[in-house]
Fold this sequence. Notes:
Helix content: 10-25%
Structural class: alpha+beta
CATH superfamily: Electron Transport, Fmn-binding Protein, Chain A
Number of strands: 9
Amino acid sequence: MTTPAQPPAPLTEMKLTDEIKKAVNESFTSGKPILVAYVDADGQPSLSFRGSAIAFSDNQLAIWARNPEGGLLNNLGKNNRITMMYRDPETRSMLQFRGKANVDNSEATREKVYAAIPEPERNADKEKKGSPVIIDLDRVDGFMPGIRVAMRK
């Protein structure tokens, strides 16, 4: 009698793996843009797809918010909690990222984020009127092929 295979132990350290970073960085070009949720001025959750999502560090994501007057940038000062969702139906991967978002308009961060986002996203804001939003991750949950994820800060 064989023993059923045990599921892999979950990744628990708040450190994005190369596989997770690749999934996020290629989400737009692979047709799987990241879904972002934030709370608007009326306290209503708001959702939008973001093609500019990238892994910024081992425990941070970033997006380029093109519209300086948009809802995301205007509401982070009131509530900077943000949730992002990645889903790949082909591999049955799903990752939910939760953290605190802040605008970092330092020249170094602006250049780093803008240079890293996909070309179509850069082309949509050639004048760089937008701002980089850095998400300091508190938790990441989900699964990828052979990997369970339950990361905590």
